[in-house]
């Protein structure tokens, strides 16, 4: 009996291609819209999370001045020096490393190419406080740091702009470039880090031992920024308070006088971005739910209209000896076949849409099995429910009343 | 042997309260196997209601309907459907063929519900179409057929299961007189050669003349019965 029902269902779909197509279209649009929206939402979340990760976990940026920038009015707060670094490293609990930074703008030259960039003087600790692996070469040796040797590690943007000749990826290693006239040996190459969360190309940088930068480029012993890595086991606000106390003492700020330095916790950026992303995901989910409802109403309408126009057909089938259940099963099979077909096409369409839109939005391409499955199931369920219940009403009619339906 | 159809005091009431209308007011009727009966009467006399009850498409409000000695009133919906499938064939005034469906597939439909295999269905359906003279039109859909041809497809669909009783509700109502005579000749031939009992509602005396017996309805009751049999068989 089931087999004959399938024959009848497929015949009916084939004979009413327009009606079948319209039913399926409602499901296709509903499913594709939901999947596309949610997938792009998740891709955006992922992109933001990736940027957060590129900041590194729990780093405190200690800088002179109040708030962002150096602040207007009053005497310029002084930069830090090596003793501040040592004091923090030796006296504060819960830190993994302290990397000082002194930077200078330079023009880098290699053979015919030149490129204006920033030299960042620091120590090997720079690579332990944050996740920024080298793709080739090595970090500074302790004696190179102590002696202030002219060795450098290139960010990817600098590498690309200086070493235009191509060749092996690690070809720049062992070469000498000139930075504001200082000859410098390339010992390492940094991996790509991408755009910073707040703009600026993080790869447009040359890393050198801080002593080399201080002696040969800036000409003083000042340290502009300290990067403090916080131990996972410690709470970063506590560490931040401890550093604030220490620096106030060292800089002789007493009473209710304001700090002349600021400590920025990257965990705060993460928290802000995560909150924004959560909100974004919420909005996208709401929009997706609405489009699924709209798609569902479309499916419902077509199913209801087609059942009304098919009441006569149900009457004919009942009159020639079909049992109500057989008619019902046929309608159910039709609804299931159309809904599932629409669901599959909708999923395929959604992948194509994501493939087209994701690059435009500069987010990664994603396949989210959860939402694909969910959208498919909901669409199929709507199709079945609205295919089934009106059919049940029609099949429950007296055959003669169904036959008279206009 | 019990008659094919035996009605005793069958009533049918539509509506409730003041709008209540009694379409049948206690009909007694017997139809023997192999009969060709026409039911005639003015509009509202209850002849269509009678037809629907005989065809098990509707149930009587009172009285008893015995089909082959079985009480139809005691059957549920599905059992009545199975009875229609097994013993009855229908021909309607409006043909009631499935649209966009070929003549062959329309004729096949009752066989599908009966559970016949593909080859049996094809053979029987083609035989039925041949019987009504439409073997060459098997692949055409109703919209490509004339009214007379559509009604013949409907007759082929009704007789493909080899029913005991063929019920025809104004089968010639939508046809011109020439087509009508063709349809009546076809029904007569089925009655005589295949022994199918034919029960037909009509309001055209010319058509009723093909039947052996004419039952006249008036105000929900059998008024009188005419016999066309010149010589008893």
Structure description:
With 406 residues, chain A is of the alpha+beta class. Chain A folds into 2 domains: 2-52 and 272-404, no CATH class; 78-259, no CATH class. Chain A is built from 13 helices and 10 strands. The longest helix of chain A is centred in the C-terminal third of the chain and has 44 residues, at 266-309. With 233 residues, chain B is α/β, with parallel strands linked by helices. Chain B has one domain (5-227): Rossmann fold. Chain B is built from 7 helices and 10 strands. A 6-stranded mixed beta sheet of chain B has the order 6-7-8-3-9-10, with helices on both faces. In chain B, strands 2-1-4-5 form a 4-stranded antiparallel beta sheet, covered by helices on one side. In chain B, α3 packs parallel to α5 (147-159), α4 packs across α5 and α5 (147-159) packs parallel to α6 (177-194). The mean pLDDT of chain B is 90. At the A-B interface, α1, α10, α11 and α13 of A face α2 and α3 of B.
Share of β-strand residues of chain A:
15-25%
Oligomeric state: heterodimer
* Count of discrete structural domains of chain A: 2
Q: pLDDT average of chain A, as an integer?
A: 84
Structural class of chain B: alpha/beta
Radius of gyration of chain A: 34 Å
Large-scale geometry of chain B: globular
Biggest contact: A-B, 25 and 30 residues
Unreliable residue runs of chain B: none
Please describe the biggest sheet of chain B, giving its number of strands, its sense, and whether it closes into a barrel.
6 strands, mixed
Order of helices and strands of chain A: HHEHEEHEHEHEEEHEHEHHHHH
- List the uncertain runs of chain A: none
Number of helices of chain B: 7
- Characterize the overall form of chain A: elongated
Tell me roughly what share of residues is in helical segments of chain A: 55-70%
Number of strands of chain A: 10
Cα gyration radius of chain B (Å): 18 Å
Question: Widest sheet of chain A: strand order?
Answer: 2-3-8-5-7-6
CATH class annotation of chain B: Alpha Beta
Number of E-state strands of chain B? 10
Instruction: Give the tally of structural domains of chain B.
Output: 1
């Amino acid at each position: 009996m089931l087999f004959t029902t399938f024959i009848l269902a497929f015949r009916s779909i084939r004979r009413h291609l327009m009606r079948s197509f319209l039913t399926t279209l409602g499901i296709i649009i509903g499913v594709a819209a939901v999947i596309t929206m949610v997938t792009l939402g998740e891709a955006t979340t992922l992109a933001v999370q990736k940027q957060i990760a590129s900041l590194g976990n729990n780093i405190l940026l200690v800088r002179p001045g109040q708030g962002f920038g150096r602040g207007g009015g009053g005497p310029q707060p002084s930069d830090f020096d090596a003793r501040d670094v040592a004091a923090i490293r030796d006296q504060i609990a819960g830190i993994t490393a302290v990397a000082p930074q002194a930077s200078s703008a330079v023009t880098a030259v290699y053979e015919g190419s030149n490129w204006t960039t920033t030299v960042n003087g620091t120590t090997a600790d720079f690579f332990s406080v944050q996740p920024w692996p080298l793709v080739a070469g090595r970090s500074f040796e302790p004696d190179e740091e102590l002696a202030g040797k002219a060795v450098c590690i290139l960010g990817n943007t600098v590498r690309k702009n200086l070493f235009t000749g191509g060749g092996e990826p690690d070809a720049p290693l062992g070469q000498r470039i000139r930075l504001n006239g200082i000859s410098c040996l390339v010992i390492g190459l940094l991996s790509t880090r991408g755009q910073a969360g707040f703009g600026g190309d993080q790869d447009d940088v040359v890393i050198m031992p801080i002593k080399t930068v201080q002696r040969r480029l800036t000409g003083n012993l000042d340290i502009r920024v300290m990067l403090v890595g916080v131990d996972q086991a410690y709470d970063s606000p506590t560490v931040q308070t401890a550093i604030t106390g220490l620096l106030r003492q060292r800089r002789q700020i007493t009473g209710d006088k304001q700090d002349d330095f600021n400590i920025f916790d990257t965990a705060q950026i993460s928290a802000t971005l995560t909150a924004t992303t959560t909100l974004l995901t919420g909005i996208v989910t709401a929009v997706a739910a609405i489009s699924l409802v709209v798609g569902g109403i479309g499916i419902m309408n077509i199913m209801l209209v087609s059942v009304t126009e098919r009441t006569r057909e149900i009457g004919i089938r009942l009159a020639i000896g079909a049992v109500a259940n057989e008619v019902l099963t046929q309608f159910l099979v039709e609804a299931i076949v159309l809904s599932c077909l629409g669901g599959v096409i909708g999923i395929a369409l959604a992948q194509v849409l994501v493939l087209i839109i994701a690059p435009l939005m500069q987010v990664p391409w994603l396949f989210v099995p959860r939402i694909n499955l969910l959208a498919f199931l909901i669409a199929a369920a709507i199709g079945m429910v609205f295919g089934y219940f009106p059919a049940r009403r029609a099949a429950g009619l007296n055959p003669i009343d169904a036959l008279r339906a206009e | 042997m019990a008659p094919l159809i035996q009605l005793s005091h069958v009533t049918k009431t539509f509506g409730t309260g003041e709008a209540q209308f009694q379409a049948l007011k206690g009909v007694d009727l017997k139809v023997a196997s192999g009969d060709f009966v026409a039911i005639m009467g003015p509009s509202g006399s209850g002849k269509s209601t009678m037809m629907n009850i005989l065809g098990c498409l509707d149930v009587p409000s009172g009285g008893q309907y015995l089909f082959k000695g079985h009480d139809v009133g005691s059957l549920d919906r599905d059992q009545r459907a199975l009875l229609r499938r097994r013993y009855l064939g229908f021909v309607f005034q409006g043909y009631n063929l499935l649209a966009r469906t070929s003549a062959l597939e329309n004729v096949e439909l009752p066989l599908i519900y009966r559970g016949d295999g593909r080859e049996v269905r094809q053979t029987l359906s083609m035989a039925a179409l041949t019987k009504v003279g439409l073997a060459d039109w098997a692949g055409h859909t109703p919209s490509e057929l004339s009214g007379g041809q559509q009604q013949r497809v409907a007759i082929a669909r009704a007789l493909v299961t080899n029913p005991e009783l063929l019920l025809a509700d104004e089968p010639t109502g939508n046809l011109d007189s020439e087509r009508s005579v063709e349809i009546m000749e076809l029904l007569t031939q089925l009655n005589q050669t295949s022994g199918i009992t034919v029960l037909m509602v009509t309001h055209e005396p010319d058509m009723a003349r093909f039947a052996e017996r004419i039952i006249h309805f008036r105000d929900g009751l059998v008024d009188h019965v005419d016999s066309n049999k010149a010589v008893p068989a």
